[in-house]
Fold ADP-ribosylglycohydrolase family protein.
Amino acid sequence: MSPPSRSGRAAGTVLGSAVGDALGAPFEFGPPGAYSARFPDGAGLMCGGGGWDPGEATDDTQMAVLVGESLLERGGLDLPDVFERFRRWAAGEPKDIGLQTEEVLTGGHPWDLAAPLHFRLTGRAAGNGSLMRAATSAVYFAGAGRAGTMEAARRLAALTHGDRAAWEGTAVLHELVRVALDGADPTAAVPDVLADVHADHRERWATVLAPDWHPDLATEFNGAVWPCLGSALWALRTTGTFETALAAAVDLGGDTDTVAAVTGTLAGAVYGDEAIPARWTAPLHVPLPGHGDRVLRAPDLVARAEALAAGPAHRRAEGPPGRPDGPSTGTATGGQPTEL
Ligand SMILES: [Mg+2]
């Protein structure tokens, strides 16, 4: 089989994330091994359960789609617009929403203060909620280079997560996707990526991204940002196909929809959309509460991925968009990440 095209990898990133989310959702908070017990022949199905219909994507994919639609409709990174889309979605009573994300989005504070205020009050903001929605932005900003895509990731993460650990993790995921879209091996890129992780957070990220790290070594529940990304990279590294990577991720138990969504983001970028089984994409559907109650299907996600992959180059041809203000949390380390 010939290697996937760049557009196939971009489609795989967005579709892979959504498929992982929907595949893992019925197993959320379950024990390790539940997936392989349910599907002993290894050929897992979109089975539904736990309040989810077969193939129904959860908040992970819903938020990723909202980020992607903002990037496309605003022609770049418009943080207040993304926050407003999130707020409308949260007010539309999605079936699931992360605790941290819900508190930030429903607290009534402005877009640039909500997350830092919440973090100051609670000290808790290192969940995987910004990692889970990064597939669309990772495709869009891949053309911005390593520094550009990592900075965009930090800003998007900071909308809901005040802890820099979440920003750095999302930045790492963005960069690993960029590497994979170029046809290189993201697992081999980890040392280079770590060099661009904020120094205060580098060691902890180096631990969970190391080649000998195993999910059993996690010191937190995999709803936290570190073991979530560590587990996704482990699933990618220890398997050889899209399907087996996702099976390994869901079989870890715990926050299965998000660990599998992040795994699907990476595995989709590596293997491309043609490696994703049709029995998973056919029932896939993404409801969008608060946004006209639209329901997207796999072909809609592929079309968005293709538009996102053209992102920054397309914008350059059209002229610069309005420059959004950076967050007041001090995430900017020099200039706008989207100055392309
Ligand atoms: Mg979810």
Summary: The radius of gyration is 18 Å. Residues 6-24 form the longest helix (19 residues). Residues 58-60, 96, 257-258 surround magnesium ion (CB under 6 Å). Confidence is low (pLDDT under 50) at residues 314-340.
